[in-house]
Each structure stands twice: as structure tokens, then as C-alpha cells.
Amino acid sequence: MPTLLVPPLVVAPLMARGRRETRLRSFAAVNGLVYDRSAPGAPAQGALFQLGHEQRTLRRFRGSWGGGRFEVGNFVLRTQPGRRCCEVTTGYLILGPLPAPGAVHSWVRQAPPCALPTTHVERSGDTVVAHTLEPLDFADPGTWELVQTLRAQLAG
Fold this sequence. Notes:
By secondary structure, the chain is an alpha+beta fold. The protein is built from 3 helices and 7 strands.
């Protein structure tokens, strides 16, 4: 897993002109992150990710901060297969290792950090999953400030 070498994050590529996708890929490269535009399935085993059908991840960034794994992205949940009207998108942040698929684990809901737009936070062992009210706009440097603040409050 790549390591985030430059704290704080270098946001200059996000401010540059050009296509959004190119700027996001440049941002990931400069900061030592792995960027995926889309991935099938749910990114974690938390209770919120287990709801509904046709789960997929959009614009996901993975890496590590201070030796700990993290993943941040947008998660799309379609509650009725084949019907776009029943689609919900939420942002998420995962800190720590993901539990092995099929392993027995329990998720415990915890209070969201103060003053941050999170609706749902779960913990299972060393792993914390937080969901935001709205999808995350990764081309906005303010989103990355929020991610760093959320990471500090959840890990601390």
C-alpha cells in the first residue's frame, strides 16, 4: 500500500486547469495515493454497506497516513435493482485494516465527531468506517481538509 509521503496533502493539481479526471489522477500521484474511478461491490463490511442491492464505489482513493491504512470514496447504493430512482450516494472514510471477507466480526455504532457532516460511524476492532451526508467532491481542496480533520478526530 502506498504511503502518504507529503503531509499535509499537496492540493495544487486540483487547482490546475484541465479535465477533472486528469486533475484527480495527478493529485493522487503527487500524494502517493492509489486512485480508482469505479470499483464493483461495497468497500467494507460495515452495516451501512450491507444494505440494499447493486453496490458500487465511485472515485476511491487509498493509501496510508502515519502507518495506518485509509480509504476514502463515494459509495452508491441502489435499493431496487435496475431503478435509478432508488439510488443513494454517500461519501465514506475507512481507517484501519478491512476485516477479511467471511470472517466473524461485529460492528459497533459510535457517536460521529462533532461539527462534521457524518451521519454514521461504526467500529470493528482497529477499523473505523464513517459516512458523510453528501457525496464527496474530490476536486475541492476543502473536501481533503475535511478528510484530514475527520481522520484526526476518529483516530485520536
